[in-house]
From TrEMBL:
<dbReference type="InterPro" id="IPR017871">
    <property type="entry name" value="ABC_transporter-like_CS"/>
</dbReference>
<protein>
    <submittedName>
        <fullName>ATP-binding cassette domain-containing protein</fullName>
    </submittedName>
</protein>
<keyword id="KW-0067">ATP-binding</keyword>
<dbReference type="InterPro" id="IPR003439">
    <property type="entry name" value="ABC_transporter-like_ATP-bd"/>
</dbReference>
<dbReference type="InterPro" id="IPR003593">
    <property type="entry name" value="AAA+_ATPase"/>
</dbReference>
<feature type="domain" description="ABC transporter">
    <location>
        <begin position="11"/>
        <end position="241"/>
    </location>
</feature>
<keyword id="KW-0813">Transport</keyword>
<dbReference type="Pfam" id="PF00005">
    <property type="entry name" value="ABC_tran"/>
</dbReference>
<dbReference type="GO" id="GO:0005524">
    <property type="term" value="F:ATP binding"/>
</dbReference>
<comment type="similarity">
    <text>Belongs to the ABC transporter superfamily.</text>
</comment>
<dbReference type="InterPro" id="IPR027417">
    <property type="entry name" value="P-loop_NTPase"/>
</dbReference>
<keyword id="KW-0547">Nucleotide-binding</keyword>
<dbReference type="GO" id="GO:0016887">
    <property type="term" value="F:ATP hydrolysis activity"/>
</dbReference>
Length: 256
């Protein structure tokens, strides 16, 4: 199956606001992302998960405009087209514990309306890419937390999405798996727009071509991991250059 050509920007967000009662989880956020691996960093409550949920089309904006693959999400007909081209690993995902890994990934392939003839091969490939081939027929309830996370990543990539949204994908992965996972991200990011929300700045430094730092529902920094690290030159706290950059940018934003 060949992926359709992507016209325009993969992700285009303008003035995105999401309110929960009086609190703004996102507050006029602007963002443009194309192919590549993009890290999304920010402190607790910055709005990362809210942004991921809007981009995954499971939450609606209060105001503002979001276009994915050139389709405006306010257009109901476009939603179906876009959803086929998306992969999404939520921060917390539900599953039937009696499903095997293969059944679980297959189920998502059907939900994404993949042509039936392509499903078995795509499922096997996705399971292999996350290193679960030897567990493909194991029930989900028998997997460790990290393996379950990897099964979640497999369902997200089964349709070779044009946009892949991963909310804290490395939570629970052991160090060796995290190294493999970064390699997987880099290979997917060659022609896919991958957005990874995480607290692990070392994953961002190692795997991401670009990083977006959110605070208070807005973007406060956008650049390469090296550029973020550059903001930490001097006295800011942190154990690595990128941690120091992260801390320095947040402090400067809070002092505004
Ligand atoms: N369903 C909800 N109802 C009310 N407030 C919410 C809801 N979901 C999120 N919020 C609020 O919106 C803000 C942003 O939350 P969000 O989960 O998007 O942040 P985050 O950056 O993902 O945080 P974390 O790093 O802790 O996962 C927070 O103030 C949060 O309390």
């Amino acid at each position: 199956m060949t992926a359709p050509t992507v016209l325009g920007t993969h992700i285009e967000v303008r003035g995105l606001t999401v309110r929960y009662k009086k609190r703004a989880a996102l507050d006029g956020l602007d963002l443009d992302l194309d192919a590549g691996v993009h890290g999304l960093l920010g402190p607790n409550g910055a709005g990362k998960t809210t942004l991921m949920r809007v981009l995954a089309t499971v939450a609606k904006p209060t105001s503002g405009r979001v276009a994915l693959l050139g389709h405006d999400l306010s257009d109901q007909r476009a939603l179906r087209v876009v959803r086929r081209r998306l992969g999404y690993l939520p921060q917390h995902f539900g599953y039937y514990p009696r499903f095997t890994v293969r059944e679980f990934v297959e189920y998502f392939a059907w939900l994404k309306e993949m042509p039936g003839s392509t499903v078995p091969l795509a499922v096997d490939h996705a399971i292999e890419r996350v290193g679960l081939a030897d567990r493909a027929d194991e029930r989900l309830k028998r997997l460790s937390g990290g393996m379950l996370r990897r099964a979640g990543i497999a369902q997200a990539i089964v349709n070779s999405p044009d946009i892949l949204l991963l909310d804290e994908p490395t939570a629970g992965l052991d160090p060796e798996q995290r190294v493999d996972f970064r390699q997987l991200l880099r290979s997917i990011g060659v022609d896919t727009c991958v957005l990874v929300a995480t607290h692990l700045v070392e994953d961002v430094a190692a795997a991401c071509s670009e990083v977006t730092l959110a605070n208070g529902g807005r973007v406060v920094f956008r650049g390469t991991p090296d550029e973020l690290a550059g903001h930490g030159d001097g006295a800011a706290d942190g154990d690595s250059p990128i941690e120091r950059g992260y801390t320095a940018v947040l402090r400067a934003d809070r002092a505004r």
